Amino acid sequence: MAKTHLKLVAPTSHYGTTPPPRRRNADVRAREYLTDTEVELLMKTAGNNRHGHRDATMILLAYRHGLRVSELVALRWDAVDFPLSQLHVNRAKNGSPAVHPLRGPELRALRRLKREQEPASSFMFTSDRGAPLTAAGFRKLIARLGGAANFNFLVHPHMLRHACGFKLANEGHDTRSLQRYLGHKNIHHTVRYTELTSTCFKNFWKD
Asked: Domains, the chain, ranges and CATH?
C-alpha cells in the first residue's frame, strides 16, 4: 500500500494570522500627560472608591515623584524617612536613584495609609489580603478612574510621570535638575519636557 503524506497547514482565522498593528499614541490622544487639574480630578474620583485613600495616595506619589508604575507598586515603607520628610526612589530601566523631599500632603497621606493598613505590610500599597498591588492592577484602576471622571481620552499611569515632568518644566526648573529628579540616564529623554513648556512663549503676545 502506498504511503500517504499529509501536509500540515497552520490554522488560519477569519481575521488573518497576524494581529492588527498597534495604534500610535498620537492617534489615540493629542497629548501624553495630564494637567494639574486633571490629576486632582483623578484623585477626587478615586476617593469615592472602597480603597479611595490608598488609590488617591498612589496617584499623588506617582505624580509628584514622576514614578513609573513598576516603581510605584514596588515602594516599601522603609523607603520613607518620616522624621526627615524624605522618600528614597529607586528607578527602573537603569535609572539613577535619588532622595526626594516629601511635602505636607504626601506626608499626611502616607501616615494615614500606614496607620490604617490592614494587614500591615512592608509594602506601601497592598490588597485586602496584604499582597502588594500589581502594575497591571494599577493600570486598570487608572483607566477605570479616567472613565469615571468623564475624561474624553484614555488615561494610563505613565501620563502621571509625564505630568510631573511638564509641571516642573513649566515652573522653570532646569533640565539637569529635572533629569536627576526623574532619574533619566540620558538627558535627551528629559528635553521633551522643556521643549514643550509654554513659558518660553509668554512674551509673544502682549495684548
From this structure: 31-197 (1.10.443.10)
